[in-house]
Amino acid sequence: MNQRSIDMIEEAEHNLGFTLKVMQGSFNNGAVKASADVHDGGGAADFRARTLDAVRRRRVLEELRRVGFAAWLRTPAQGFVIHFHAVAIGDEELSPGARRQVKHYKNGLNGLASGGRDDGPPGFRGMTWEKYQEIRDEARAVQGVPSAFPVRDVTISITSVRMAAEGEPISHSRAHDAEQFMAFAFKGIKVIPVTTFMAWRKTRETRFFVFAVKCVQAHFKLRQDGDPGPITLANLTQFGYRITD
């Protein structure tokens, strides 16, 4: 298998808390007739399922899919020895057959010639290894940073957030208002990436704050002028914030 696939498997194993037994890997060059050409390129792997109960089988499928595999449980009813079959979405070395299976997966199918419906865990069809890493790293970046998370039922001063947008020095209490606005943009309505949130938190540069203001304004379909004034902040009241001058 290539390194990308190995990294994905190891991440899934980390999330599961146990290792997966590989039955068949990649680059097989037609060695297994039953697999057609699916395992001839990169990104394809089969794992043992026989020793796991139904709950653990479901968990394995969830974690394989979470890290970016198109993954299914193959069963005797389908003509297979029971096992997990996984294809790494977005792998540049996939065989034509593996690429077809990824397309089937994204269309809610089981990846077999029968064209049956996918009966695995839902909610992961848009996932790739790269997207998973972005989500994981965002979670790690804000872990232990209380100001990353919005607090409801608090007061935000228009003066405070305008001072932050204009780069004026602000006191600790006023900085709290600005932090709450950034947390609202980052985690509340999710309109700015973790890079913007962490860059502002570290540098307090106005360009990051103004960018967040414009993203919030775009979310509420307001004029994107970068001014966190009463028109912009009034939209926060529906989320439990109290706005003052």
Summarize this entry quickly.
By secondary structure, the chain is of the alpha+beta class. It is built from 9 helices and 6 strands.
* Biggest sheet statistics: 4 strands, antiparallel
Q: How many structural domains does the protein architecture include?
A: 2
Distance between the termini: 60 Å
Assign an overall shape: elongated
List the helices and strands and how they pair.
Layout: H1 3-16, E1 22-24, E2 44-48, H2 54-66, E3 69-74, E4 83-88, H3 96-106, H4 129-142, E5 155-157, H5 158-166, H6 172-188, H7 194-203, H8 206-219, H9 230-233, E6 242-244
Parallel strand pairs: 5-6
Antiparallel strand pairs: 1-2, 2-4, 3-4
Helix pairs in contact: 1-2, 5-6, 7-8
Descriptive labels:
245 residues, alpha+beta, 2 domains, four-stranded antiparallel beta sheet, 9 helices, 6 strands, elongated
Describe the protein in words:
The protein is 43% helix and 11% strand. The chain is of the alpha+beta class. The strands form two sheets. A four-stranded antiparallel beta sheet has the order 1-2-4-3, with helices on both faces. The chain has a two-stranded parallel sheet with strand order 5-6. Helix 1 packs across helix 2 and helix 7 packs antiparallel against helix 8. The chain is elongated.
